[in-house]
Amino acid sequence: MRNILLIEDDISLAKSLSGFLQSEGFSVAHALGMTDGIELFEKENFECVLLDLSLDDGNGFSICSRIKSQSDTPVIFLTASADETCTVMGFEVGADDYIGKPFRPRELVARIKNAIRKHASQPLLQCSNVIIDTSRGVCRKNNSEIFLSALEYRLLVLFFTNKGILLSREKIMDELWTFSGEFVGDSTLNVYIKRLRDKIEDDPANPQILKTVRGLGYKAVDE
Amino acid sequence: MRNILLIEDDISLAKSLSGFLQSEGFSVAHALGMTDGIELFEKENFECVLLDLSLDDGNGFSICSRIKSQSDTPVIFLTASADETCTVMGFEVGADDYIGKPFRPRELVARIKNAIRKHASQPLLQCSNVIIDTSRGVCRKNNSEIFLSALEYRLLVLFFTNKGILLSREKIMDELWTFSGEFVGDSTLNVYIKRLRDKIEDDPANPQILKTVRGLGYKAVDE
DNA sequence: TTCAAATATTACAAAATTGTAATGAAAAAG
DNA sequence: CTTTTTCATTACAATTTTGTAATATTTGAA
Hints:
Chain A is α/β, with parallel strands linked by helices.
């Protein structure tokens, strides 16, 4: 936990920095340049990346876009050049923060924590082993993606945002099939429930997530 | 759109600041102190709050916690005192960023945009007259619903959560077409862009939302 | 200007989604 | 136990989505 990747080619600075961060309760992995930085990043799981802008062997900006292209992990630029253009560029390649030297240690920690906290508050809807990442519009089960059609997705989101709450058939039909004044038969819902169960339940015949409440409706439960 | 609340008791500073921000495309509401600041905040809808730490009539910190207790709107402290303890305190009461004077205008804008973008984890993603309600998985244009297919939806969410940021073709392809190890041709993206434009743009031939950045990729822009 | 590269547009077939209806199974009521 | 109701399951046709290829257009560079 609180694993941080520091990419910094100034060895003495890196040493003192990681020493300090460790004393603050972080665990720090250190990479000297672009190549091992990316390699490390792809191998381990980090909660935050501290990135020196001016590396010898590559451009800090490109490392940042590289990282951001494959994950949401917060990236904070650390840099001597407090140059405004660089700062702006840093944010444009997706950085979460940009800190000029000299670093003030407690502020640095505060900014790292801030970035991690913001990142942690992702809008994830979870129910048992099924997760909807509404910030991407994706559903996963045990970390592998499940492809849901547009309406299946909406239906599941409806259930997950009302976890534990009973939804009447009427309410569900209203919520999903009232975008065009079309009439949709009642049995449609039965079929959608079945299709969802087939996709998300471990044993669709014994649903543990989408429960039937006979005569009343359905609800999603956790455990 | 891009409505900002500035709480600042130094009138001349407030004037020049809001002038500049307006020239950058923000619309700025100005409050002189705590009382009208809170009042304005509760009345209107803002995408970001700029908060002077040292107000006469109240403590900037308490305004911040007040705001954060009732919403997720990003709060950025603007302050003369670059004092480290204050900075740390600012983050502790939930601020999203903390900028010391003197402000560098483009950096300020970059940080504001960054805060707003990060806040995109909120349920409503908006770009011009198109809104995605991620808490329901629906897209609306001028308040009437637009039916997007699963992949179109994901693509648009990707753009809207990165509003103003350039997305390379590679990054987009990675994000959308890497769920099954299938290869998907490069031209697919062109077609999806067209389909989205046909659905969301007022004049699909002159896209105002999904902009092409030739040779680099695409980005969603607001106005 | 001319050319080459990048993007836009169109058309199309394979595949998936969508809604319905018919049938089957389970639960509650009599 | 039988009946009725409710939900589950299946199968199916109409429609939509999806990815591709082929063509047109635009853009920037030579």
